[in-house]
UniProtKB/TrEMBL annotation:
InterPro entries assigned: Sel1-like (IPR006597), Sel1_AlgK (IPR050767), TPR-like_helical_dom_sf (IPR011990)
Lineage of origin: Bacteria, Bacillati, Bacillota, Bacilli, Bacillales
Name assigned to this protein: Sel1 repeat family protein
SUPFAM superfamilies with a match to the protein in the record: HCP-like (SSF81901)
Organism: Thermoflavimicrobium daqui
UniProt xrefs under Pfam families: Sel1
Amino acid sequence: MPKMYGHTLHELSLAAQSGDVWAMGHLGFCLLGEAALPSYWKEGEKWLRRSAQAGGKEAMGWLGYCLITGYKLQKNIKEGEWWLRKAAELGDVWAMDQLGTLLLSGHGLAKNFREGEYWLDRASVAGSITSMLKLGKHLLHVGNYREYRQKGEKWLREAAKLGSYEAMICLGNHLLKNTQNPKGKQEGAMWLLKVIEFEVKQYEFDLSQICAQLIMEFMTSKNDPTKLESLYRQIKKFSNVWTLREISRYISSGDLSRCNIKIIRKALYKAGEAGDIQAMRELGTRMLGGYEMMKSPIEGELWLQKAADLGDRLAMGILGVRFLKGEGLPKDKKEGVRWLGQAVRLLA
């Protein structure tokens, strides 16, 4: 369901009581949200209904969806369908997407491919990336006709251009496996390559976030439980399980003065030598980028190759990108293409 940002329940309540249709709907949604207690659900339904009856198309869509699926409200499929259709007909993109999805799946509503495709198409034309992805995948799955395949490819391509990595993977795999045209296969490989490049960029960015300053904060936190928990969560997002064990050991012993960069390096080496693929990849990437370690291109390449030889797609991607760009490794187009090709084949 849609999310609501930037307003407290108190602010929404005041605005809703003054007759603001938008606030009524969003107050109802909040009172039916994931964290809401059952005692609030009836009040949430009341505000959704008020907003919907006053013409709030978002509230119509949410109310309809809840009634059809039984999400925190008593199921009433007939009334729910009426509200969801009304919201979709008034141009609410989320309602179009949900109506199309329910009609295609047959969950809650009678299955109707033709009408489901119609509503997802309208939502896609209105700019919904989610609808483009759903419609594209559906048309490729059910369409034995050329027209279906072309339309499915078109919507997946649009979603991919707008940044949907799921669409890139789906379209790339489809073109590589089901297209005889060399240009089609080339396009398929290109989309999968974009996914690899994004994963590499995101991974290296994440690693760069764990810097000496973060470890220093650990050392100077003086065992403050709240601060330690916050810092540990930050490191846990990015780091290797062996590293976490080492940090946890020093936290539990209360001897944070010894928890420093050398300890992190030692933990990674220990894990890599024991055959941990994630540690090998992390060691190699840190050595090539200098993240908390002295730059060592030769040793960094060796660790990444070890991980890649064991089937790690991300390590292959890192090697490919760095060889192609000459970042941390000598520029070598042939090696770069070879490693990226292996990564793409695993993704496919």
